[in-house]
Amino acid sequence: MKITRIRVYQVDLPLDKPYALSGGRLQYSDLDSTVVLVDTDQGLQGLGESCPWGATYLPAFATGVRAGLDVLAPQLIGCNPLYLDTLNHLMDRALPGHPYVKSALDIACWDILGRFSSLPVYALLGGRFNDGLALQSSIPTASPDAMVADVALAHAQGYRTHSCKIGSGVQADLRRIEALLAAKSPGDRLTFDVNRAWLPAQAIAVMNTVSDPGVYFEQPCETLEQCRRVRAMTRQPIILDECIHTAADLYYACESNTAQALGLKIGRVGGLTKARHLRDYCLQQGIQMNIEDVGGSQIADTAALHLAMATPAPFLRASWNACRHHSVVTAEGGHSVDQGSAYLTHGSGLDLTPRMEVLGRPVALYE
After folding, report:
1. What is the pLDDT of residues 331-346, one digit of tens each?
2. Cα–Cα distance between 318 and 15 in angstroms, integer?
3. CA–CA dist 29, 19 (Å, integer)
């Protein structure tokens, strides 16, 4: 089998309401997503997506995806899409780094592999360990009362794990934390996600004030080394997210006992092939995961959920669905959401049908 054509589409995803994170220093009102369609000489087609969360959240940006695809896509014409490790090796040689660029192509080739095998992608990633997949809500930075109201709304919609975005300073964040813990419904779990906004001293001051053993703090500081120093002086479990880009980052985080859980975003690490490797290492080390993607539509969400489906339930905390924050439907099928849980369809590949009227005309074509 050979790749014969790669089409690239740009899709705007306006958020249903403005979204603030990292204590409010990062603000977003829309996302710019890139969708790829990969065609083969056997008539099979694969669908993938890469959608950075704006240009300020990570060292990744939407126009960078499309510029990188202009380098990579011509290299893949004529390659066998079923040889996923070979393709990733080729992409890494053609464009070192820039994993977010490669994610859409890698996902599309997994979709082709599933369709070729007449199996859902989760079957190829390890099998079906779950029925429904618990989702976590994502609560933007706001006043304590507004964040309490957002958590209450998410709870009413069936969500039981809530990622609450903080990071604007010790006193302001303590007020948010106290209000959210006081209003927490029985059975709910709270994560306080700082998105790298604290200095180590701030992280230590806030985290050592919280006594609830069920509370996790996510990515308190900018770097892995800063988080390691915070870990040495605090007791609350830490989820690492934005500072884990490679397998080497994860190995160090585990060896230094910095990470008690991992936010595994497939777009950040380069797609399903590399995310699977990190997932498998977490299984060996006893590290729980939130398996999700950085942003995007049904395509990116579905791909991440396939990896979550193929992960034993004790290792899953929750997944996040970016679709909850916008109303653009780029593809039919893949998965559905009901009462805070996601349910995959079980057709071949990702079991998605692109909505060409939404994708529009390709912004680039390679053949």
Report:
1. 999 999 999 999 999 9
2. 22
3. 6
First to last CA, the chain: 15
Element (H, E) at 156: helix 144-156
What does R_g of the chain's alpha carbons equal in angstroms? Answer: 20
294-305 burial string, b = 16+ CB within 10 Å, else e? bbbbbbbbbbbb
Q: At what angle do helices 144-156 and 170-183 cross, to 10 degrees?
A: 30
CA 64 to chain centroid, in Å, comes to: 18
Q: Is 265 a residue of the active site?
A: yes
| Amino acid identity for residue 76 in this structure | L
User: Pick the catalytic residue: 102, 184, 265, 274?
Assistant: 265
The catalytic residue among 102, 165, 184, 274 is 165
Between CA 23 and CA 140 the distance in angstroms is 9
**pTM more than 0.90:** yes
Q: What is the pLDDT of residues 43-75, one digit of tens each?
A: 999 999 999 999 999 999 999 999 999 999 999
- Which of 293, 280, 354 shows the shortest CA–CA distance to 325? 293
SS3 label, residue 342: strand
In sequence order, what DSSP letters do the residues of 271-286 get, joined into one string? SHHHHHHHHHHHHHHT
Q: How far apart, in whole angstroms, are the C-alpha atoms of residue 261 and residue 288?
A: 5
CA–CA distance, 357 with 107 (Å, rounded to integer): 22
Q: Are strands 3-21 and 364-366 parallel, antiparallel or unpaired?
A: antiparallel
